[in-house]
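Throughout this chapter, every protein is written as a compact record of paired, labelled lines. An example of such a record is reproduced below:
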Amino acid sequence: MTFVSITRLRLRSVRFLPSFMIYALKSVRQCKHTPGFQGGSLLPDRKLTFWTMTLWRDQSAMRAYMTTGAHLTAMSKLLDWCDEASIVHWMQDNAAQPNWHEADRRMRTEGRPSKLRNPGPNHATLGFAPPRPTRAVALMPRA
């Protein structure tokens, strides 16, 4: 079994982009070194929107990553930086990475909006445009 985690974040202003990118790079480095990380993908999308897809041995491995280090610090900043943020998780029988269309479908049907201080009009309804997956970048665990 594999635990899949998808996030979608939209920055509310370009002024947050430099700091966001610093924390994103630190979080990617942390993720690659976290025990139980099996792989994933990053998708920079249009209008300051960023998707992540990570695959984990189990939910506890993902939570160990999420609740420590750079990722934990970044999560608190996203409350102010984002006007849209959502997350979806699921278990699947195999370790194959889903495609971005499946990630989008799951986000809309099973996902939930995250807590934000400045939510935009589409935040609560997950009423966003579908992702354009052409710019996705693979993530691989470090040995």
